[in-house]
Amino acid sequence: MTLDHVGIVVESIDAVLPFYRDQLGLVVAHREEVASQKVRVAFLKDAADDRAQVELLEPMGDDGAVAKFLKNRGPGAHHVAFHAVDIASAMTRLKQAGRPPLEDSPRPGARGHRVCFIHPKNAHGVLVELVG
Ligand code: CMX
Predict the structure, then answer these.
(1) Mutate to test the pocket of ligand 1, among 83, 127, 130 (most ligand atoms within 8 A of CB)
(2) Which residues sit with their C-beta closer than 6 Å to ligand 1?
(3) 93-109 pLDDT, tens digit each
(4) For 103, phi and psi rounded to 5 degrees?
């Protein structure tokens, strides 16, 4: 397991880009609309290193997990994502340990990866994503 990205919910990706890109010096690696999750996302990275990126998440509309988070808790850290070499085995291990992922099997996520999520109540207060 290596750290893949940290997800941060924002009201507007374009409004926060000057901070992450121009002031912190990160580079926009990828932008996408994930319609199934009702979010627009932007992945930012160090210019020389693809690891441990930041994912900015902006809700598309008034419903969906990210819109609910923004409404209830405001902008801020939303999830931590780990790259799993074998996501199916990792999901089985978590299920056997009493921490079942929300999904029964990996589903399509951003950047063409297969992903699953572990509810914060089963992960010590942090929403955890596994990226296959
Ligand atoms: N981090 C920490 N705690 C969180 C949380 C988060 N991201 N989201 C909700 N919570 C907490 C709430 O504060 C609340 O706590 P209390 O019971 O102590 O008040 C509790 O969890 C339930 O909150 P809720 O608003 O009722 O949330 P839901 O149970 O309806 O939904 C979750 C939570 C994890 C099931 C939902 O957000 C989900 O399905 N997430 C997975 C999918 C997702 O996040 N997609 C967007 C990202 C897509 C991408 O990265 O491409």
Answers:
(1) 127
(2) 7, 34, 37, 39, 41, 55, 57, 65-66, 68-69, 72, 78-79, 102, 109-110, 117, 119-120, 125, 127
(3) 999 999 999 999 999 99
(4) -95, 150
